[in-house]
Amino acid sequence: MKARTLLFLWMLPLALWSQGEVQVEVRGATPGGNVIVMLFDRSEDFPRRPLMQRVIPVKGRQAVHTTFAGLKPGTYAVAVVEDANGNGRLDFYFFGPPKERVLASRYAKGRFGPPPFEEAAFRVDHAPVKVVLDFDR
To answer: How confident is the model over 93-106, as pLDDT tens digits?
Structure first.
């Protein structure tokens, strides 16, 4: 029993160290609404079913920040929606294009729809990854 406890205590820092994190900074969002920041880990879920999601109120012209921690090493992508009216979702015009501004990591662009996951994807290992997206870019 003592040996198991010692082994567990020895392995615990290794398990914690192997966790990655993604730090997201969003600039240029319009004050008064929300920014929806979504993290994806699978191409088949992008951009509809996020692994994790944060809704952040935009109070002024300063950037908003969030962190997704405890991530397994792998490939991830971020999508950001400027939810200007605060209804918690991306609104679309009748013929399909979004009414609200949308960004993807690596500034990936789609053609007549969302960008492919592979164009927005980045690698997360043990060191924190910082993603900066600017709506005014």
So the answer is: 888 888 899 999 99
Longest dimension (CA), the chain: 66
Q: Which two tokens stand for residue 117?
A: 């996951």
- Please state whether 76 falls in left (phi above 0), alpha (psi between -120 and 50) or beta: beta
Measured in whole angstroms, how far is the alpha carbon of residue 29 from the centre of its chain?
16
Domains of the chain: 2-134 (2.60.40.1120)
Integer Cα distance of 125 and 137 in angstroms = 28
Which has the closest alpha carbon to 120: 30, 22, 29, 28?
22
Structure tokens at 135: 């709506």
Interval 105-120: pLDDT, tens: 999 999 888 999 999 9
Q: What is the pTM of this model?
A: 0.85
Pick the closest to residue 43 from 71, 76, 67 (CA basis): 76
120 and 106 in contact (C-beta within 8 Å)?
yes
